[in-house]
Specification:
mainly alpha; 4 helices
Length: 152
């Protein structure tokens, strides 16, 4: 199931809540809010990029399933394969960087509402990793189908 829209709606509410929680905080903590807001924006962009990659994968799947010797859109397929590979590599890098960001700030985000936010942030990254892993698996499956069709 595609939970992207639900995720985006949740993420869009978080910066407001975090800002409200820290409205009486010191200036150092306010800088953290900006960073947490950046995290939310980054997570939202990653979710959108995963969705975009999934759309490309759907298009690739349709092209691969086309039959006929003269109806083989090889160039379109090769371009999509290249684009999807690039997307997956970039998304993996972004998710690793996002996880590193959270790990580096783990000590600052402990206790009370901040601890809940840290837990929630880790859950978001975990969900994004799972979605990317599912997209990657589907991509591999499509490539296997393509390979078997070429052998026929």
């Amino acid at each position: 199931t595609d939970l992207t829209s639900e995720f985006l709606s949740i993420v869009s509410t978080l910066p407001i809540e975090v800002g409200a929680m820290n409205s009486t905080s010191s200036k150092n903590e306010e800088k953290g809010v900006v960073s947490l807001s950046d995290f939310n924006n980054t997570a939202s962009l990653i979710a959108k990029e995963i969705h975009s990659t999934s759309k490309k994968l759907s298009k690739l799947t349709k092209l691969v399933k086309m039959r006929g010797m003269f109806n083989d859109p090889a160039q379109d397929i090769n371009e999509l394969v290249y684009e999807i590979k690039q997307d997956v590599q970039e998304l993996n890098s972004k998710l690793d960087a996002t996880q590193s960001y959270l790990d580096a700030r783990k000590e600052k985000l402990t206790g009370g509402a901040k601890g809940q936010y840290a837990n929630h942030s880790n859950n978001i990254v975990g969900q994004l990793k799972t979605e990317l892993m599912q997209t990657t698996k589907s991509f591999k499956d499509v490539l296997l189908v393509r390979s078997s069709k070429l052998k026929e």
